[in-house]
Amino acid sequence: MANSRSTENSTIQAVDAPSCDVSCDESLVHLDNVRQVQPEVLSTEKAQRMAEFFSALSDPHRLKLLSALAQQELCVCDLAAAVKMGESAVSHQLRVLRSQRLVTYRRQGRNVYYGLADDHIMSLYREVAEHLDE
Amino acid sequence: MANSRSTENSTIQAVDAPSCDVSCDESLVHLDNVRQVQPEVLSTEKAQRMAEFFSALSDPHRLKLLSALAQQELCVCDLAAAVKMGESAVSHQLRVLRSQRLVTYRRQGRNVYYGLADDHIMSLYREVAEHLDE
DNA sequence: GTTACCACTGAACATCTGTTCAGTGGATTG
DNA sequence: CAATCCACTGAACAGATGTTCAGTGGTAAC
Questions:
Q1: A28 near B76, Cβ under 8 Å?
Q2: Can you list the domains of chain B with their CATH numbers?
Q3: What are the tens digits of pLDDT across the range B90-126?
Q4: How many CB atoms lie under 10 A from the CB of residue B39?
Q5: Cβ-Cβ contacts under 8 Å, A58 against chain B
Q6: Which residues in chain B have Cβ-Cβ distances shorter than 8 Å to A57?
Q7: Does the global pTM surpass 0.90?
């Protein structure tokens, strides 16, 4: 982190006080626009949580796993076979999906069966699929 | 850019022969389940494209940029001020958003004004926000 | 109890991502 | 045209991500 220090910069600094933000210089930016928009900008905390959620969906293998689970419940070794990954890798990825509550799981004998947590997810999936088909 | 070249191909290949898949061993996995699910699994190509899309949304700074643009059109330096980033960093991130057609842009004088490409995106945003509020 | 299987975990490694810094190109102003 | 501003780009670096490998814990079958 460590903000830019006093290296004679001009635009990056001190943006905390709404009374004198944006390097105290109105000519460099359109202060009125910035003022208007700034309070509507996602909070760092929310942005972070949302980013983590999308991040869970930002891997092809995880998406394949979800598309498999959209069909039916499956145990880890079946999932591994279906998407052609090692079981260890699948376990690691399922951990990510679990952390974002995208999947559920239950133990039955030696196997652990995973399933989609939410139909919610499928509608999301379809919306994105539409967006990409343009 | 620059997709994975021909450096590896072990796991992405040969998904065609349902007659002898999954290490040719029925006892290790539930072959019937795998058979049933496998054809519904997202293709590597589609999974890749979808992953890239979600990847564009998987960064807090980019989400902040989008939330700002959801309010109104803004030029780069205003965006930088609104989300407290350097202008160069903003430019790099906007490149990512452009590549997924999440934003539009137009030049006006010395400035380049960016805006949300699609209301589509906002509904996506809201769905995820709901999911996270549980 | 012993063995075998399924799933999870931690460490190590290669790769990808995002920021900063320095420099370039386009457009306006004097 | 010289100076200035705005935005984009490439290189370099630090940090995050995903896979493999080896090992652990729980459960069922012998």
A1: no
A2: 25-52 (no CATH), 59-132 (1.10.10.10)
A3: 999 999 999 999 999 999 999 999 999 988 888 898 8
A4: 10
A5: 51-52, 54-55, 57-58
A6: 50-51, 54, 58
A7: no
